[in-house]
Please model this.
Amino acid sequence: MRYGEEIISNFDVEKDLELWENTSPNDYFIHITLPEFCALCPRSGYPDFATISLSYVPDKLVVELKAIKLYINSFMGRHISHENAANEIYSTLFNALKPKYMELRADFNPRGNVHTIIELNSNQSGQTSYNIQKNTF
Model:
């Protein structure tokens, strides 16, 4: 097994998801795009690919970028539905970070003429109520 495969297969979200202290007094958005998500269809075993987009307003913690990359890559060998993958990623990160606001978008590549997008945000789920005013860049 190569070193990258070993790190990914042994990734334990409980101990390996590295979080850092947010030292800024300002509210700000962090936008992270992970364009190489891959998991296996629980029914067929075929690979499903997606772009995961995460945006959050941190409170006391931020996620270290290599740790989130390894966490997302740890799904590669798992049989999991689009909906369950998006919900698991969202819940894991929301519970770990406890942000002021979080949204996750899982945009799955079409397969068999079906394109799926799963979207979650903390205002929608009642976890937080944060006033969002986003600018388009």
